[in-house]
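This follows on from our talk about sequence and fold. Can you supply me with one protein entry, sequence and fold together? Could you add the entry underneath, on a fresh line?
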Amino acid sequence: MTELKVSGLEVRAGEAALVNGASFQFTSGELVAVLGPNGAGKTSLLRGALGLERSSAGEARLDGKLTWSMSPTERALLL
């Protein structure tokens, strides 16, 4: 089973913290929803967790490997 584990993730845009210290974990087969108002950081959280945007702190691992170090093909095969 594929596992996504995020620990202390922080995503910044300049001086502004878009995501500050997010931590969560789930495995394939689970249904997860990210809810919040416009501008709350939902997209930034997901982009940071999936390695599409480099985080300024914390880490996100997909099956134990740092997501930002994976190629798009590697990530797609695991998701």
In short: The CA atoms of residues 10 and 20 lie 5 Å apart. The first helix runs from residue 42 to 49. Strands lie at 3-13, 16-27, 57-62, 65-66. Helices lie at 42-49, 72-78.
